[in-house]
Amino acid sequence: MKIRLLGKTPDELKRIAVSAGLPGFAGGQMAQWMYVKKVRSIDEMTNISKAGRQKLSERYEVGVTGYSGLQTSSDGTRKYLFPVVCTRMKGLALTDDLKAPEDTLEEGAVEAVMIPDDDRATLCVSSQSGCRMGCRFCMTGRQGFHGHLSVADILSQFMAVDESDRLTNAVFMGMGEPLDNYDNVMRAIEVLTADWGFGWSPKRITLSTIGVLPALERYLDSSRCHIAVSLHDPFPEERLSVMPAEKAFPAKDIIALLRRYDFSGQRRVSFEYTMFSGFNDSIRHADALSRMLKGLECRVNLIRFHEIPDFPYGCPPDAVIKRFRERLDANGVLATVRASRGEDILAACGMLAGRHKGRFSADRVL
Fold first, then answer.
1. Which one of 61, 111, 246, 272 is the catalytic residue?
2. pTM
3. How many domains does the chain have?
4. Which of 17, 128, 133, 228 could staple 26 via S-S, CB 3.0–4.6 A?
């Protein structure tokens, strides 16, 4: 099994270069080839000697995983299917060829979505296969948890989509809870934003979470990227009925934490609020949400619910959503209604399920 170079830092690549008998500066060359020039094979790293490339290729590969399926929506949204082999151990970031005996690897698939919008191309990125948060209105949550994506599999989504060279933004809103796979997600963000990596501004990246504590605090302390919190209901007992994570991570505690940070500058906080007809769409809910967020510099994104089987609520009429937004605005809370994209190919919010046929071979070290 070969070790994937994708996701490693220049210092790690330097150690790999030296171990292969190459000068240390070859590590920086490898980083530039992967993250700037986006090559997919060691043979393409032509400023490294042929003998050096052959030596590296004995144990290593770049490790970009190509997509295995593609669907295109009538609105131009594109949904990509990626094969993955992921680990079920919580918090584990596999490095080099170290793999503990108790590691459990599982084969599966994840989906990433490219959303075009005029001069923008946003990639909705997955961080896990399935999800352990269990939100009852989410297709990903319903399938259970299959494992954490490696750094290489997260970055592969950026490098393998057809629009790779013209991506302008990324949202960690695909399959999985990003803060439940904290180490690998943060390493991926490091590669995306580092000068030696993709060189993206943190302003181009948003991470969406149900509010996993204390990982959320670590993220806020260490990253300048935006944060979006899945809220969906201001009343604890109601939120708990559709979001089991409310028991471990109450919304009131999440918002209390957010109040300790400054969002008046370039970093933004927003709240995702999926509208369920007859459940969380009343003026009573709008007023309670306004009180909950009073004084916090933020935005509320109202999301039309995309109906799924065996969930008792549908999407409210547009007039109800409009009334809810206007009530928030009147209460001093900035609110917008998010446009639905890719619904005809099951690419919209909460509809990603990683459907695939067959199995995929675990032929490399994560």
1. 111
2. 0.91
3. 2
4. 17
